[in-house]
Amino acid sequence: MHAPAFTNKEQVMGLKVSVAKHKDYPIVKLEGRVIGVDDRKFGNKMETLFKKNHEKILVDVSDTEFIDSHGVGIIVYYHTLMRKANRELVLLNTNPNPVSYMARLFEMTNLNKVLNVVPSLETVS
Question: Where do the domains of the chain lie?
Fold first, then answer.
């Protein structure tokens, strides 16, 4: 399967936020470092997509080099909102390296036990 073509690219201070679609679900791809002002760009994009009442929102963190605590908070916040609305937030981490930054972060914080983290688009139903 080919990777989706990303559109609506924004780049601020090293973070690129792109939005694509898989099936009928939006994918927010985060490339680079999610820190400071970049948190707001990510949060604003999530708010816009949440308000569109998508059944699922995917967040691709495969190319995320670093995410600060506020960025993690955005993920947890929208995970909680989506669950309360009987919808789902899915994190996509296609990086097969078990010691990648995001894999270690999810494991150290136990978020891998709370959030739905999948290794490929094919595993998203």
Answer: 7-119
Beta bridge partners of 60: 29, 92
**How much is the pLDDT for 2?**
46
**Domain 7-119 classification at class level:** alpha beta
Q: What is the pTM of this model?
A: 0.85
Question: Own/partner pairs for 39-45, CB < 8 Å, 24+ apart?
Answer: 39/68, 39/70, 39/71, 39/74, 41/10, 41/12, 41/15, 41/17, 42/15, 42/17, 42/71, 42/74, 43/74, 45/10, 45/17, 45/19
How large is the C-alpha radius of gyration of the chain?
13
Q: How far apart are CA 103 and CA 67, in angstroms?
A: 12
Token pair for residue 111?
A: 């978020």
